[in-house]
Amino acid sequence: MWEQYAVSFGLIASPQIIFSIAAGVLGGMFIGAIPGLTSTMAIALLVPVTFGMEPVHGLALLMGVYCGAISGGLVAACLLNIPGTPSSAATCLDAFPMSRKGKAARALGLAAYSSFFGGALAGLCLIVVAPTLARFALKFGPWEYFALVIFTFSCVSSLSSGSTLKSFVAAGLGLALALVGTDPVDGVVRFSFGFDSLESGFNVLPALIGVFAVPQLLEDVDEIGSKSNLVKMDFKLSEFMGAFWDILRRKFDLLRSAFIGVVVGILPGVGPGLSNVVAYAQARNASKTPEKFGTGELPEAIIAPETANNASMGGALIPLLTLGIPGDASTLMMLGAFMLHNIQPGPLLFRDNGDIVYSIFIAYFVAFAFLLIFFHVFIKVIVKVIAIPRQFMVPTLLVLCSIGSFALNNRLFDVYCFLGFGLVGYILKQLKFPVLPVILGLILGHMAETQLRLSITLGSGSLLPFLTRPISLILIVTSVASLVLPWYLDLRRKKKAAMLAAEKAA
Amino acid sequence: MKTADRICAVALILASLFMIQATSQLEELAYQVLSNKLFPYVTFAFVILLSLGLLVSTFVTPELVLPADYWRRIVSRRRLIMLGLFCVYLVVMPWIGFLTTSAIFMLATVAALSPNLRKDLPIAVTLTAGIIGLIYLVFVHWLQVFLP
Question: What are the chain A neighbours of B82 within 8 Å (beta carbons)?
Fold first, then answer.
């Protein structure tokens, strides 16, 4: 393993790659800082640029973008009371009140250093857990892989906001769209309806970019001309850096939030968007002064969500690298980038492309180091960027998304797919369907089909091995539990509330 | 929202039935151990089942409370203009060329949506020139992509 690290270190140490990581972090910070633009969008915009690069170079750049964009969201959360990305939603609750009290530099410092610590702690987890899990996953057969796909869908559907039923319908839609094109097992062309362009199926990246970017940009159009809520700040570097000691004095909050972040990040389909809220709630529960949460007085109320959302990044990379299952929308986009470079994430990745995996680990830490430096140097510029009017941003991003979709295969069909999937995403979003399961279905559809057919063939037509093989059984039972348990608990809570109401009435 | 959900569920059921019919027409290969129709059948049956569930749920669950202008906002003038301009941009791109169309699209969007055009136009022109230059540099010069 150490030889692999040495080789990977040699790969990453080239000036071009270091520069790319730095540029990725900075670009990601700017994009993440703009409200409404998520890390997913940042990666989507940059994936096509990596097309002509070596895999290690391209993935290192994207790792920088991912780190930068997740953390960039904290600036808008602190100064605008709008989370730049969903991962900073809970940060707003205390960081904005603190900024309004004239302590914007302190709020930004707390959030920035927490992001760094959260990311670094999760990185340590990543390098310890990922190789072990990958070795374990080598024992997986088609039964376990199919059960894993079911588990992923159950997690996404039960944990995503909104109706569980709608999440499953969206997942079904994604699976149906994945059927278009060439059958992954026999190579038979299906559902192309005479269109040559459909014979290779839908390209994942234009679909991903469309589904996430178009709905957001169309909604952003409504904000044109609206007045900005930006807090004016008098930035003092000493005040910003003083937050470092505040964090070190709250080690338990830091560790607890990092742990929550990693665990939530590992769960497929959810990530920083959920972990920051959970960590905030836990910090409040553990606090001796919970009533002061939301007032902008407590550093731990900023430390908890910002540590957790960055820790989720490392957590989300664990299932991606070891099982080929994305942990959240951003790692879904990273999965698309891996596919673009003909690399299949999963347990074999550690054996066959160890240099790439360990390079990603190193790039992750390098990116966080740059993140910390850039927060000190560029914070004033980032603050200016978040106030860019939407009438300039929306057409620019649409043009960049179009060129990105086109450049992947040099065909206009992909740009039309970008628009088509964008419209589907927009309609689904307005009808309160989550869009993440659609993309998950599209990406995991081939894997699900291949593994199901393989498992039935190897089992001589029997489905029983799904229940007789322990890992497969555990995954299936967990999937069922993750669907039934929330429903059961909700029912029990309602019953209890009804009983209490009846008692009160009596 | 209930009516929209019902329309959505019925549309998905009809589309899935059509796709099941299309699946039955798929060519089967002589050496296949397991039919290649199995997974499509399972998937479309799954979608039908869930859509039926969605349809039924609209009759038993309470109506979601939405803001009064929710549906109007979805098809607001600004969004439709943006979408219309983008569609036109994609349609004319193969004839006029990517760089020229992109420049026109960016300027036209600002012209159509800006609340203060006189103030925004110089910024829009500078931004357009910068973005088109950047795209040319990265995609044409560096990545050697053949733009339409």
Answer: 217-218, 221, 394
